């Protein structure tokens, strides 16, 4: 078909589109658009514009907004166009309105009436156009205006209408779940619709509903499973096929739903095993869409109650993803691995080298995903390596959003798994140094508290060592330029509290440093305030200790400068400092005791010390204090707010005619009697409007609490029946040790010994720089994943599983050994000392055998997927071919 | 809500179609489009077709000079979205016959109509090409 526009497009329009298309720069494009705005402003207001012409103008307005300019002068014409009788004009009008206006725009009110009319139209295409508009334009207030008609349309004979009506209801649910809470059963009904399109659309609202409240939909598990089975067996019309896969997008949505329903529910999960297994086997691995379904299946397998067969299949699929040349598949593989390790931690070990490759890949997306995986598998054994890597990455990126995220992850991991105080302080220093202004201010306070209180053990020497090492590192860092404010605050506070405590530094040395900070950051009042207060502490401790005070000249001038500061806070601190210095030792010691930050200050919340004063005042005739919440005015205010949320529709615009006013006396008497009733806000015609109706939305929350109880019970069931190593990974869980079988125990102990030795070796060798790349990678692998296997060992794994992974790991070492030059310490990293590969592999399950077969196809797929991009782009040559 | 926006942008960074499923002001859209396009243009063929941007994940695919970009939230299956883009292109192809950038520019409203059939409330609701195109063909006949 000609790309030169169809019939009915004027030369003017063609020229505009061409000139925009040929614009070589943004500036040129802007110039074209600005001229166009001027032209349109003139033309659009002309009285005798034909409707076809107007449609073109509206599309030109779309261009103006799309290219980033304001076209609000034409909005009203788009609204008018939606009133047209002609279908194409009406739909264009609606389209423009949905693109121009957000749901709270003033003009929406002009269109609600048109929508109401169109929803009743005989032409189903008009109804569809109106339902499209409903999904974009109707807000909470206008829902009641169209709700009855939308509900009626759920039964419309045309499937296209039913589908859009379902989505309109979905939209109402998104906007205001309470307004349609009595209608959600309609979604269940439409799931059984005879048309697959309606059924497919219904999965969207059901997914949302199930996300919020799983337990009310457990009865649908069987239905979803049977639908999925039918879809996978190609029972749906051919037109839903995509690249030879039957209705893949519906399959994916169903798998997502099963994922929610089967989570922590053994009974529901058992219904799913067969169909999920079938789907995983049927996936066409040569196409993206096949892999998309496979990925979704892995997500499902990782979320539902564990099934060993499916987990093995998922692990195999992941290894295919990771081995693929396609970065997209690697990315999906890393993500899937992050999900699967939650129930099967040993999977990660098989892929350690692949993971490290992804970590070092120049592709930032892949790298970031891999860090997410590492974050998920951090243990106390590998925290140092992982956090070090994360910090390096954090330093290397510029994007504030991800810098913040990475920094807070580092802090979180460090707080959770820190192996030593010293490491913790060093790590926090690095994080603060490079992202101090991005991390939550709470982190700074946590750090100060940690330094003050230690790690909560009653070990005073350890605590004072921690403080000393903090002081020492801060004294070193403090001179560096461009330290973030939050970090400087921590430094000042720590130096003030503990700078001179251990006697390593003299008061004047610390004071000098603090003055330097205040001077270097003269524009940052917070840092200056911290510095001055720290100075005060330092000098106070000196006076209290009976030493002669010897104030530095720069300190003197700083204080003088601050006493005249514009900031009253700084001024006050400066004056306080001067006052404290003038006092004698005894007084100073009382004002500023050493290490006072750890003292618990008791707060008398009821202000009981004022009781006698209050009593006295009462006796003199004073009025008692009325709390704010009990005062009359406040009642109204807070009630108003509550009401506003619950029954917004009472005050909302109404689109039906008002009823005739009832006799006022009858209605009004109850409202007057109770002072909490809001007389002026309740619409006059129906003063006794039953508020209870609007309480219904609270029902879901009730069942919610019920559901959490239910969940708890399920957990118990899971522990009892499930294989012990699938219970949620808790590395230090001593309880699980009791599940150990004697057989498994010996095996595991042997393995863990080797493993821990290997880890030690790797740490040692890490310090000596190596030139070879692959041993380094291995070392990294060992330090990252060594912890994994150890935690696995703690978790009483099943005997078969353990031996299988050993074999795989052993296999891997063999492979690796061939490639690398023999480096002594790395050699036994992964070797668990069971070189019985040949004998054990044949006994493995059919999935394992399948792996070999599929590997071949996988290679083929990698090749063909490369060419898919080329062949699938049907239009490369025709683009710009005029 | 899965899909947050769908963009078509050419390699000069000029927007050819934009559909947002959550409200952003014109300035916010302009800024967002600029940042995303810069990020995607900087990437090569071997790298992932996914980019994280603020709290969106962008899935993109290039057809000759035109980039199709879909912004999704975190829980979406990226590979499926990548194929959804291709489904969209196949659908446009069926309607326009060897679709090209200019087809979309001259028939902007039709491209939007197709999207309206395929995606509602940020969810993929229709993937059958004949169902997607039926109303558009009927409209063409009527006018």
Q: What is the assembly state of the chains in this entry?
A: heterodimer
Hey, which two chains have the biggest interface? A-B, 88 and 73 residues
Distance between the first and last residues' Cα of chain A: 12 Å
| Outline type of chain B | globular
Alpha-beta classification of chain A? mainly alpha
CATH class of chain B: Alpha Beta
Whole-number mean pLDDT of chain A = 77
For the termini of chain B, the CA-CA separation is: 35 Å
What are the key terms here?
heterodimer, A: 882 residues, mainly alpha, 42 helices, B: 143 residues, alpha+beta, Beta-Lactamase, five-stranded antiparallel beta sheet, two-stranded antiparallel ribbon, 5 helices, 7 strands
Report on this model:
- The complex is a heterodimer of chains A (882) and B (143).
- Chain A has 882 residues and is mostly helical.
- Chain A is 66% helix and 0% strand.
- Chain B has a single domain, classed as 2-Layer Sandwich (Beta-Lactamase), CATH 3.30.450.
- Chain B contains 5 helices and 7 strands.
- In chain B, helix 4 (108-118) crosses helix 5.
- The longest helix of chain B is centred in the middle third of the chain and has 19 residues, at 78-96.
- Chain B is globular, with a radius of gyration of 15 Å.
- At the A-B interface, helix 1, helix 3, helix 5, helix 7 and helix 9 of A face strand 2, helix 1, strand 3, helix 2 and helix 3 of B.
């Amino acid at each position: 078909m000609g790309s030169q526009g169809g019939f009915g497009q004027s030369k003017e329009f063609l020229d505009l589109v061409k000139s925009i298309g040929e614009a070589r720069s943004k500036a040129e494009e802007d110039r074209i658009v600005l001229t166009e705005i001027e032209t349109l402003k003139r033309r659009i207001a002309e009285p005798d514009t034909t409707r076809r012409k107007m449609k073109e103008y509206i599309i030109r307005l779309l261009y103006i907004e799309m290219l980033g300019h304001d076209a609000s002068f034409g909005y009203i014409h788009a609204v008018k166009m939606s009133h047209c009788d002609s279908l194409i004009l009406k739909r264009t009008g609606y389209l423009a309105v949905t693109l121009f206006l957000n749901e709270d725009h003033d003009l929406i009110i002009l269109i609600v009436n048109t929508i109401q009319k169109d929803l009743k139209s005989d032409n189903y295409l008009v109804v569809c156009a109106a339902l499209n508009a409903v999904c974009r334009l109707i807000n909470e207030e206008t829902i009641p205006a169209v709700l009855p008609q939308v509900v009626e349309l759920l039964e419309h004979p045309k499937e296209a209408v039913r589908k859009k009506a379902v989505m309109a209801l979905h939209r109402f649910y998104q906007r205001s779940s309470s307004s349609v809470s009595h209608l959600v059963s309609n979604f269940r009904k439409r799931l059984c619709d005879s048309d697959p399109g309606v059924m497919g659309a219904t999965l969207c609202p059901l997914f949302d509903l199930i996300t919020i409240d799983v337990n009310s939909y457990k009865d649908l598990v069987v239905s979803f499973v049977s639908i999925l089975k039918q879809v996978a067996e190609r029972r749906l019309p051919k037109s839903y096929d995509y690249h030879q896969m039957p209705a893949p997008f519906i399959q994916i949505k169903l798998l997502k739903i099963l994922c929610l329903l089967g989570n922590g529910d053994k009974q529901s999960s058992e219904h799913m095993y067969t169909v999920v297994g079938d789907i995983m086997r049927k996936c066409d691995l040569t196409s993206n869409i096949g892999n998309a379904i496979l990925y979704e299946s892995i997500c499902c397998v990782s979320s539902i109650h564990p099934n060993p067969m499916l987990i093995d299949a998922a692990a195999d699929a992941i290894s295919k993803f990771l081995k693929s040349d396609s970065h997209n598949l690697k990315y999906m593989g890393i993500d899937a691995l992050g999900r699967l390790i939650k129930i099967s931690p040993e999977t990660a070990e098989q892929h350690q080298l692949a993971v490290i490759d992804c970590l070092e890949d120049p592709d930032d997306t892949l790298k970031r995903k891999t860090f997410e995986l590492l974050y998920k598998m951090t243990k106390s054994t590998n925290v140092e390596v992982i956090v070090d890597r994360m910090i390096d990455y954090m330093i290397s990126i510029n994007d504030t959003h991800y810098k913040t995220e990475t920094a807070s992850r580092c802090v979180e991991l460090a707080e959770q798994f820190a192996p030593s105080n010293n490491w913790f302080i060093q790590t926090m220093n690095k994080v603060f140094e490079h992202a101090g202004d991005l991390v939550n201010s709470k982190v700074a306070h946590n750090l100060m508290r940690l330094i003050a209180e230690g790690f909560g053990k009653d070990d005073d020497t350890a605590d004072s060592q921690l403080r000393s090492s903090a002081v020492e590192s801060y004294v070193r860092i403090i001179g560096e330029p461009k330290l973030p404010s939050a970090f400087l605050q921590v430094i000042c506070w720590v130096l003030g509290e503990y700078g001179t405590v251990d006697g390593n530094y003299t008061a004047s040395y610390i004071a000098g440093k603090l003055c330097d900070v205040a001077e270097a950051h003269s524009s940052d009042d917070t840092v200056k305030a911290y510095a001055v207060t720290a100075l005060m502490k330092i000098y106070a401790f000196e006076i209290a200790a009976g030493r002669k005070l010897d104030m530095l000249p720069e300190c003197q001038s700083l204080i003088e400068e601050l006493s005249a500061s514009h900031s009253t806070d700084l001024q006050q601190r400066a004056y306080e400092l001067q006052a404290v210095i003038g006092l004698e030792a005894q007084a100073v010691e009382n004002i500023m005791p050493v290490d006072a930050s750890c003292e618990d200050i008791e707060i008398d919340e009821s202000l009981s010390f004022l009781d006698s004063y209050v009593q006295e005042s009462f006796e003199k005739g004073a009025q008692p204090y009325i709390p704010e919440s009990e005062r009359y005015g406040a009642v109204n205010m807070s009630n108003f707010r509550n009401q506003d949320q619950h029954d917004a529709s009472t005050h909302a615009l109404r689109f039906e005619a008002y009823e005739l006013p009832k006799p006022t006396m009858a209605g009004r008497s109850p409202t007057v009697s109770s002072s909490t009733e809001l007389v002026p806000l309740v619409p006059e015609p129906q003063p006794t409007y039953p508020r209870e109706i609007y309480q219904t939305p609270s029902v879901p929350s009730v069942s919610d609490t019920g559901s959490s109880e239910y969940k708890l019970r399920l957990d118990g069931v899971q522990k009892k029946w499930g294989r012990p190593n699938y219970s949620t990974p808790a590395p230090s869980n001593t309880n699980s040790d009791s599940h150990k079988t004697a057989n498994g125990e010996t095996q595991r102990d042997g393995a863990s010994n080797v493993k821990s030795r290997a880890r030690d070796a790797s740490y040692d060798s890490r310090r000596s720089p190596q030139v070879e790349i692959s041993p380094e990678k291995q070392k990294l692998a060992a330090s990252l994943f060594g912890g994994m296997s150890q935690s696995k060992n703690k978790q009483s794994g099943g005997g078969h599983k353990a031996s299988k992974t050993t074999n795989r790991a052993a296999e891997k070492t063999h492979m690796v050994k061939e490639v690398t030059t023999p480096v002594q310490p790395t050699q036994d990293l992964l070797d668990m000392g069971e070189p019985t590969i040949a004998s054990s592999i044949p006994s493995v399950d059919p999935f394992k055998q399948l792996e070999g077969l599929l590997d071949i196809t996988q290679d083929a797929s990698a090749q063909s997927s490369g060419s898919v991009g080329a062949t699938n782009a049907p239009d490369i040559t025709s683009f710009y071919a005029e | 809500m899965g899909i947050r926006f769908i963009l078509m942008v050419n390699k000069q960074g000029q927007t050819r179609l934009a559909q947002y499923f959550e409200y952003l002001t014109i300035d916010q859209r302009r800024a967002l489009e600029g940042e995303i396009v810069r990020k995607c243009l900087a990437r090569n063929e071997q790298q992932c077709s996914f980019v994280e941007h603020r709290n969106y994940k962008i899935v993109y695919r290039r057809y000759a000079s035109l980039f199709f970009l879909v912004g999704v939230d975190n829980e979406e299956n990226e590979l499926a979205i990548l194929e959804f883009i291709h489904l969209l292109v196949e659908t446009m192809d069926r309607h326009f016959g060897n679709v090209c950038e200019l087809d979309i520019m001259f028939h902007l409203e039709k491209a939007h109509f197709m999207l309206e059939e395929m995606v509602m409330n940020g969810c993929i609701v229709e993937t059958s090409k004949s169902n997607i195109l039926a109303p558009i063909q009927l409209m063409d006949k009527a006018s």
